[in-house]
Amino acid sequence: QSVIDYFNSLKIEQSKILIRENLYSLDEIASMLNYCSSSHFSRQFKQKTNMSPTEYSKLVNYFTLPNNEV
User: Fold this and answer.
1) pTM of the predicted model, to two decimals?
2) 11-20 tens-digit pLDDT
3) What is the DSSP string of 8-60?
């Protein structure tokens, strides 16, 4: 694993934390983590996690709702 891969992995892990906090939009998260665009962030996220940031957000927010209310 190269240094760049390592830092990209750290950024994805940080983005997962920010998504779970549910305080910021995906555009804001991409900007906070210095991605050049939200689409670039989405591609990198999907490459590392096999799901889009939106899919991840829906998944984690579903499991944090009381009684899994949708």
Assistant:
1) 0.85
2) 999 999 999 9
3) HHHHHHHHHHHHHHT-S-HHHHHHHTT-S-HHHHHHHHHHHHSS-HHHHHHHH
